[in-house]
Amino acid sequence: MKASSDRSKEDGAATLFISVSNQIRAYSSLPPNFQEKGFYSHLIQSILQVQLVERGHLSSLLAVKPPVVNANGGLHGGAIAAIAELMSIACARTVVAEDKELFLGELSLSYLYSAPAEAEVAVDASIVRSGRNVTVIAVEFKMKKTSKLIYIGRATFYNIPIAKL
Questions:
Q1: From 108's CA, which of 50, 123, 124, 165 has a CA 20 to 30 Å away?
Q2: In the prediction, which pLDDT does 104 show?
Q3: Model-level pTM greater than 0.90?
């Protein structure tokens, strides 16, 4: 026979599972426009404004709007990752030829502080290293008003040349 504390742990786990299952079912009925291809891109592009494009450097301004704010009132971590990936790809393309395919091998992010809703964030991506087979990009997110560093990202791309037959 199980002790009462074991039973309460199992009951708590079962309750949590049921709660999560109900939330998943609630999200599975998203409106069709949220499920169409390219929605993610439109969402990110609606909050990101390109400021500067140079060889090996890219700067943008990010407006923290309600669609990308988490329950705590800050910029959602998934949105940060998506923006870091998008900026990294765009920055890599300023030095890597279009005929080479890029493979994202690693994306690491450090969340130092949170950007509050309605804030403006300066996003800078720059080449750390670019060689024949590897390109490394650093992405910095800073509050526009204070220049306080809030997120740091680093992406490693592997350059895959197209085979010549």
A1: 50
A2: 93
A3: no
